[in-house]
Amino acid sequence: MSFFTSLSGLKAAQTDLNVISNNVANTNSTGFKKSRANFGDLFAAAPTQTTKTVAGQGVRLTGITQQFTQGTLQATEKTLDLAIAGDGFFSVRGQPPRQDLTFTRNGAFSVNVDREVVDTTGAKAQLLPVDANGVATSNNIADMFDFILPEFDPGDPTALLTNIGINGEGVVSATFSNGNQINIGAMAMASFTAIEGLRPVGDAHWQSTGDSGPPQINQAANGPLGQVRSGSLELANVDITEELVSLIAAQRNFQANAQAIETANTLSQTVINLQV
Q: DSSP 3-state assignment of 223?
């Protein structure tokens, strides 16, 4: 029995090492959220047995959860580099044909050849319609639209785009060569009832699940969404010192379980030799 108990410990320690290693590897990944492995003990006893005489049967993985704590904001001075000071997510939609809606904290946006504002995966940033005062007129997913930079003033085709600005509420304003300024829309921000239930899909992107609940869409500065910081990026929330200490602990745990297996093997071999 000690073989299987220690084997479960080895597997648990290996999983812990894998999780910590992934955290360390993504220290420089923009918008990355560290994970933590959670474990529980295994115990089984028949109704006729007293639990005072039954040992546990090892450990099992109960789940790997991501920690959505705020990461450090780093200034970049680039307008389309966006960070969130709060709990919200940017809403982005993938390219055709699938056009999956995902959510990210990685606000390193850029402009493609079609003047679409896209993230590092090529997914298009989504906006909500706003009125002249920059207040969102809808918070429905169906009303979101792609963030596309206008080439000229809609009311004056001779006036070219000269500047783009994004304020703390995520409102995108465009300024043209004729001095006119219009609000294009507001960054579509999402929050979730159970954020730990989100499904990671890589590149600091997540999808909503039944466990997370549907996305609650609104513009920034509403509820837990937080504010948008233009000209900044959110760094990974990984404390490298903490991770290295955890790495040492996981390594010692692995070695201890390996030693327990070796000891059990020695005892078994000794018993066999005595019987012979």
A: helix
